[in-house]
Amino acid sequence: MSKRFRGKGLWGLPSHGRGTCPVCQTKRIKILYDILTEEGKKLTVCKRCRKKKIKSACQENKL
Ligand SMILES: [Zn+2]
């Protein structure tokens, strides 16, 4: 678990685990963390958004 998102494990993922975070819109960041929004939807976000409480996608761009 601890090294799940490092090294060669990433390379089997689509785009090597990278993409645009649906929460902070950071591009080419690693999108590695599955979280549940308050609506109960599953979202895959970057490390920065992992600990945020997300109501739904694209709601936290005002920061
Ligand atoms: Zn993010």
Task: Give an account of the 3D structure.
The protein has 63 residues and is an all-beta fold. It has a domain at 7-45. Helices cover 0% and strands 19% of the residues. The strands form two sheets. It has a two-stranded antiparallel ribbon with strand order 1-2. Strands 3-4 form a two-stranded antiparallel sheet. The structure holds zinc ion. Zinc ion is lined by residues 21, 23-24, 26, 45-46, 48-49.
Features:
two-stranded antiparallel sheet; binds zinc ion; mainly beta; globular; 63 residues
Task: Compose a concise summary of this entry.
By secondary structure, the chain is mainly beta. It has strands spanning 18-19, 29-30, 33-36, 42-45.
Model regions low in confidence, pLDDT < 50 over at least 5 residues: none
What is the ordering of alpha helices and beta strands? EEEE
Q: List cofactors, ions and other ligands.
A: zinc ion
Helix fraction, binned, reads under 10%
Overall spatial form: globular
Count of helix runs:
0
Distance from N terminus to C terminus (CA atoms, Å) equals 30 Å
Query: Structural class per helix/strand content?
Result: mainly beta
Q: Work out the strand percent.
A: 15-25%
DSSP E strands, number: 4
Note the main sheet: 2 strands, antiparallel
Oligomer: single chain
The value of Rg in angstroms is: 12 Å
Sheet with the most strands: spatial strand order = 1-2
Provide the residue-averaged pLDDT: 82
Blueprint (SSEs and pairs):
Elements: E1 18-19, E2 29-30, E3 33-36, E4 42-45
This protein binds zinc ion.
